[in-house]
Amino acid sequence: MSVNVVHWNPERPVFGGIVGRALPLRRPLNNFGDLLGPVIVERMVDRLGLTETDRKSRLLAVGSILKLAQDGDVVWGIGANGKSLTGPFDFSRLDVRAVRGPLTRDFLVSRGVEVPSVFGDPGLLVGHLWQRDELAMRAPAGTPRIVVLPNFHDFKQQRKTHRNAVDPTTGLWEVIGAIAQADLVVGSSLHGIVIAESLGVPARLVRSHTEPAFKYDDYFQGTGRAEVGVAATVDEALAMGGSSPLKWDPSPLVQAFPAELWSR
Question: Which of 102, 116, 155, 174 has the fewest CB atoms within 10 Å around its CB?
Answer without folding.
Answer: 116
